[in-house]
Amino acid sequence: MKNLVPNPQLQASRISATISEGFNVTTADGRPARLAIIDEAGNVIEAGQEVAWAAWKICIEVQENFWEGQGHLVVHSSPPGDAALAATLIGKKAA
Which pTM value belongs to this model? Predict the structure, then answer.
């Protein structure tokens, strides 16, 4: 399964993970870093531990679904197309 997805070599950062601590992100030289969601215009719309834990939760949930044979290959952090939720997040500053 792992060989079916790309394995890009990051030049300026490192990502690691453990089941109990989730994602750990650093610069290539070991300084602390954080995950962010960036829109198509390059604006950081959300960043920090909340983004890391949301991404980790999605990774765990989709893997568990796969193991259970449920066939749920897509997991969302919130309802897709939820206009009200999207409207509350527009313009929210990154942490």
Answer: 0.64
